[in-house]
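Appendix B. One record, verbatim.
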Amino acid sequence: MTEPSHTQHMSVDDFDPAASSLTGAVDPAVMTELLSIRSSIDNFDATLVYLLAERFKATQRVGILKAAHQLPPADPTREKAQIHRLRALAESANLDPAFAEKFLNFIISEVIHHHQAISQSHSAVAATGVVPVVSLDGQGFVASPNAAVTDDGGTRLS
């Protein structure tokens, strides 16, 4: 499978749902059915991406709350309970529980990484007075609209 270039921005409109190395090599009726099934898979993938985006927006808010109250980025008891819950959900959905656990562990490790970065940023604010503000989309930090640029290039609330 060819990886898209990370240096070039790809639009959703650039996606060709009929792209396949099988085109012309299989019976057209089989190809039609294959593309129909893949269309559903594409819809599921899009839904997963949007769900993950929303999940990470919420976990970023948790990270900010934890940093503001000097709470640790990880919560092993919560993580263990979530893994147990997800394994049970996977079993009831006829999904391999080991796969579900691997998937959740990957997400948890990303969330902890984000929480550590937020905590470090919060510590830097405490040390410097420079205030980052979460962007409206929850995906990064921007200067506060009430901020003034300081001599060192940072921002300080006015």
